[in-house]
Amino acid sequence: MKILSIDVGIKNLAFCLLCNKEDYDISYNIVCNNNNIPNDSYFIKKWNVVDLSTSEEVVKKCCGKEKKGHCSKPAKYTKNNQCFCIKHAKKEKYVLPSSDLKTSYINKQKLQKLIDIVTKYKILVTIEKPKKADLISLITDFAKENCYEELVKTNASDVDLITIGKNIKLKFDALFLKETNIDHVIIENQISPIANRMKTIQGQIVQYFIMSGINVANIEFISASNKLKEFESAEKTEYKDRKKLGIVKTQETIEHNENFSNMLNYFNTHKKKDDLADSFLQGLWFIKYRI
């Protein structure tokens, strides 16, 4: 039995693939150490968060040097095909991006302001009486030669649905195509009036599993309220409080259940624990009440 639980997102789509002892053993060609574990016990086979806004998975890292090697922190700037975090960018000879060096800014400035910018950055002026156009050209050339380019993160709202659909195909193929069979694909239902875009992505995910060639016996939409029903009080809670509760309950569950305990460090060190928790708890709810 395999259950794939999906929490819909663009930059942070979380999934948890749960399987019972029989499928876990077959998948990894192993036998569980504890023979007393019932065959209907479940294990986590795959659990992660994927970014549908880009086809790339590689996060550019800083190439600055530390005592024990390269920095490897997420890079913020790039120059000459090298990437740097803020700390190491400041140690290089190049200038950090600044609003007064942007073309859109300098084109609007009067002559005296352009002179001030040239003076500030010590830009060499060889023309005796430069005009505004001359200074704009000098500043623009200086910026191209001496300024870092900022690595801009993709805004989820700027990604079109066609790109998202292509990335679903690309990334889900890599993640799930080898599974051959998945008994249940459960997807958090998108019902908010402002979630029309997410509702469309929900449909794209369904269509993927219909057409992928993976043998999926059942696809079902699950109410977002189900995953925390057993843990929430009767009082109404805020979204951020539910997120925190989900993380806590996931930590408690994987810590005290030997079937999941091998995932504790992975979960605790993950940057998107809240999304991982949503997909995991949704899967557990489905196993308890629908299987």
TrEMBL record:
One of its GO terms (cellular component) is mitochondrion. Signal peptide: none annotated. One of its GO terms (molecular function) is flap-structured DNA binding. Residues 3-78 form the Mitochondrial resolvase Ydc2 catalytic domain. Pfam families: Ydc2-catalyt. InterPro entries: Mrs1/Cce1 (IPR039197), RNaseH-like_sf (IPR012337), RNaseH_sf (IPR036397), Ydc2_cat (IPR015242). Gene3D superfamilies: Ribonuclease H-like superfamily/Ribonuclease H. This is Mitochondrial resolvase Ydc2 catalytic domain-containing protein. It comes from viral metagenome.
